[in-house]
Amino acid sequence: MTDFTRTRAAFHLPEGVTYLDGNSLGPMPVAATARVADMMRDEWAEQLIRGWNSAGWYAQPRRVGDRIARLIGAGEGQVVMGDTLSIKVFQAVSAARALRPDRRVILSDSGNFPSDLYVAEGLAGAVDAELRVVRPEEVADAITDDLAVLMLTEVDYRTGRRHDMAALTARAHQAGALAVWDLAHSAGAVDVDLLGVDADFAVGCTYKYINGGPGAPAFIWTHPRHSDAAAPILQGWMGHAAPFAFDLDYRPAAGIERMRVGTPPVIAMTALDAALDVWDGVELADLRARSIELSEAFITGVQENCPDLVLNSPRHPAQRGSQVSFLHPQGYAVMQALIAEGVIGDFRAPDVLRFGFAPLYNDVSDIERAVDTLARILRDGSWDDPRFHQRAKVT
Questions:
Q1: What PANTHER family does the record tag this protein with (predicted)?
Q2: DSSP string of 327-370, one letter each residue
Q3: Pairing mode, if any, of strands 18-19 and 178-182?
């Protein structure tokens, strides 16, 4: 059994704050401060450029990738870290498209994170492909024989709705297409099994439920059957078979190493490595069970005490990830008032109040306080203060 009391103690949670926004940015692991300081003092300061060899910086993206692999149902040597999620989306989709050169269609849905759609739109224009976007419930029927790549985010960033990864991947394969999955709201939140569902490519970020810190590097996974054939358009020197030979022509490295691009962010990856220590001893089945317990308690509490809010997430827990959203016409102001009271969620346009549940540090007392505070704000109308209507750049 997972000791969630231990994992909660591993995070710095500010006094008086109930944090339900780990689906956007996880809190800081207590150990990260010392780990990064040690790296800067003992490695960067003392070893200087030698650290790429003596401190293992060059191998860090694969070593940390192996730690991520356990959380997403992947195998050793199949995940590599580096760059941003948008870059990894571009790499995965372009590689999948190249493996189906006789097909032009990239299929996604309107619940996908806009950045993924921007990347796919730009790629489609560059390689003479077509991006088709349908409603989430229409995806299965839109998988046709002209499809090259199915590109989906497993858990919808606004509603928390969860796609059936196994069923949609199988349907894509039956049509002769490949499946690329974005796990931004899945990794560290739900029970992902990439090898079990036979996906082709997957990408994800590490600053949400994995708690790697703002701007923490993204990851990419390639199924072993594609690892030596995948050829992403974006080719960088760290993905070269012999980067320090400085050849003028690109030769891809073997396996997942070819998915490296630029110089890895060593300091950020050190903080991420500290965050991954918290995951040692965490059973994903326990994580999922606790997630459902927390989200169910929150939905029940809000529906009983906040009649002005409308549930915007699937009611059945099997159909959603580890986040829940409600609708209110003045959702932004309501959320700002809630944050002012020390309960932190976030807002998504046009009217979505969004709450994430991270079992590593959230417990039932967080749910109770959040429900009570939200109900009081709605009841007394304190959310309608003019200062809560002033939009900040980041919502």
A1: KYNURENINASE
A2: E-TTHHHHHHHHHHTTEE-EEETTTEEEEE--TTT--HHHHHHH
A3: unpaired
Q: Which residues pair with 346 in a beta bridge?
A: 354
Distances (CA, A) of 216 to 28, 147, 271, 325, 345: 12, 33, 8, 25, 20
From the centroid of its chain, how far is CA 363? 21
Cα separation, 389 vs 193, whole angstroms: 42
Q: What is the Cα–Cα distance from 332 to 353, expressed in whole angstroms? A: 7
Residue range(s) in the chain whose domain bears CATH number 3.40.640.10 = 32-278
What is the pTM for the complete model shown?
0.97
CATH class of 32-278: alpha beta
CATH 3.90.1150.10 fits 4-28+283-389, yes or no: yes
Residues of the chain within CATH 3.90.1150.10 domain(s) are: 4-28+283-389
Return binding residues for pyridoxal 5'-phosphate. Answer: 85-86, 113-116, 153, 182, 185, 207, 237, 263
**83, 109, 156, 182: which is the annotated catalytic residue?**
182
Q: What is the pLDDT of residues 229-281, one digit of tens each?
A: 999 999 999 999 999 999 999 999 999 999 999 999 999 999 999 999 999 99
